[in-house]
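Section 5.1 Outputs to date
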Amino acid sequence: MKASNITKNIVLADKVLETKVCPSQVEELRWFQTVPNGEGLWISPWSAKHSSIRHYEFDALFVDTTDQVVGICQHFRSYGSSHIYISARGVLELPAGMVERTGTRIGDKIAFEHPVGDGR
């Protein structure tokens, strides 16, 4: 899946792993050293963030049912926790610094695109 900020007309991640479980239940996440450039993780449903299993920084965008950014955590650190964004339907984890590099702000619209032919 691909994630773009359509308000700013910029791609946030070309390759987004999608999961509907708590990140601690996704075994391969335990071994990530960073979120590689061009990649991301979409976790839904999810309205708050914690990073107890991550040993790297990342940016987190909380997105509501209208695909609008309702919360942002930049340079999220290991063992951190975020506010609860009650209106969020999920969180998009991106490489640390991506929010600043793209100028993404609360209120921006995010588009999630599945590749043609993936059955969705």
